[in-house]
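The data are set out underneath:

___
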Amino acid sequence: MPSPTPWSWCGASVRGRGHEADGMPNQDAWSVRATQDRVIVAVCDGLGSRPCAEVGAQAGCRAAQAAASAWCARPGASWELLIRLLHARWALDIHPHAPADAAATCLLAVARRGAGTLIAQLGDGMVMLARADGSREELAGDRSGFSNQTTALGAARSAQEWSVHEAAPMAPGDILVVATDGVSDDLITEQKHAFAMHLLQTCRVDGALDDDRLYAQLDDWPVPNHTDDRTLVLCSLRGDDA
């Protein structure tokens, strides 16, 4: 997506076949905000068993953006303060819905030029930094019990339920990938770095990353009988993918 900032990014979300068949909306949401010195990526997945799942996911992205922006304006503030603010903003945003009715996982990445990269995850999905040297930094999703059970906004009671990693700043050739479990559950661990590089090359148009090309990749998902919503955001420094 063309932008005056140093960041090149694209995002897309595809409604799963299961929701199409049931006449239900896409329960994923995503948001990106970029400035000269930072980019904030938020991806949320409403829990399918909850009646207001899509409301919770959309509110999660708004709350993540607001909390991360306020956190960036206070250098030295702890990540716990960011998480607490995010939860408070989300709870206010979904009102008058009950938190349990709008529960949603939340994935957040805040990349700052020269000031480190924070990645945070509540629930399942994937937040990954694929580095130019072939390494990757990734958080582990918290899924326990049955396959549809995960912690989430509306269920978590403490900032300590989040997985958080403070990484080095993004460098030329690094790729940030944030995706819901509709994508991450189908990926082979050893191939995740190659997957990120493939997306970078496939979605490149005139030195920028293109939403439509990413959507086509998610829409033509090569996994038989896949029914879940699929959402992914890809981000690099502008010029890294030229």
